[in-house]
């Protein structure tokens, strides 16, 4: 297995995680380079989501070290990970249906103005900020006043990604962001991932779609039964080779 490069933005070494008798991860060493799209593939139950949850402070690993930009164990909770610049976009995303696009984009980091002891929501600043964020990523929604409930799956996914980037994330981790999307919506989210890369945001992408991985990723990590089965540069591999690594035929 190749050694962790010194400029890795996020890495782990010797990571294991068990849930009672279930060993979900054993001795996983993984790294992602800054500004790259790093894909994580593997069969159902291979340990991808567990690894992602360890990387973002949701699970405390049973053993192993995590490093961000050379700093060991930089955080231990999801909030601390977020403050360190890591945002996660889940498949079943945490948007609030009854709020508008702008309100969702500013959820938990509302802009307020103060008058003596009072604080008021600065709707105008949030509306302008929301419009700027959406246009930066070329995201099409009818209006920032639209309730999220009325958006399509792809638009919702785009809003979650936009929120992650708007929060200043240096690393965005996406666990199967297009699993529930149609062809056009998948293409839009893939376009958004390319845009993040242009903006020097590092992306870690969990995907079952090998064509998508070959289209988007720079580095591909293959997991099998809780272990790393291999890692390859996307430009130097093929769909057949990835299938062989995933199934254990390689
Ligand atoms: N909270 C948990 N408690 C007990 N076992 C768990 C828990 N989370 C995951 N596991 C187990 O750990 C293993 C890895 O699961 P994980 O969800 O990480 O796989 P995955 O690669 O993300 O699979 P999928 O492609 O289906 O999403 C599985 O055997 C799973 O049953
Ligand atoms: Mg999973």
Compact summary:
The chain is α/β, with parallel strands linked by helices and 250 residues long. It has helices at 48-55, 78-83, 101-105, 123-136, 153-166, 183-198, 210-216, 239-247, and strands at 10-19, 22-32, 37-42, 63-68, 71-72, 86-89, 112-115, 118-121, 171-175, 202-206, 219-224, 227-233.
What topology emerges from the helices and strands here?
Layout: E1 10-19, E2 22-32, E3 37-42, H1 48-55, E4 63-68, E5 71-72, H2 78-83, E6 86-89, H3 101-105, E7 112-115, E8 118-121, H4 123-136, H5 153-166, E9 171-175, H6 183-198, E10 202-206, H7 210-216, E11 219-224, E12 227-233, H8 239-247
The chain binds adenosine-5'-triphosphate (ATP) and magnesium ion (MG).
Adenosine-5'-triphosphate (ATP) binds next to strand 2 and helix 1.
Features:
single chain; 250 residues; binds adenosine-5'-triphosphate; 6-stranded mixed sheet; 4-stranded antiparallel sheet; 28% strand; alpha/beta
Give structural notes.
- Helix content is 32%, strand content 28%.
- It is of the alpha/beta class and 250 residues long.
- A hairpin with a 2-residue loop joins strand 11 (219-224) and strand 12 (227-233).
- Helix 5 (153-166) packs parallel to helix 6.
- It is globular.
- Residues 48-49, 175 line the site of magnesium ion.
- Residues 19, 22, 24, 42, 44-50 line the site of adenosine-5'-triphosphate.
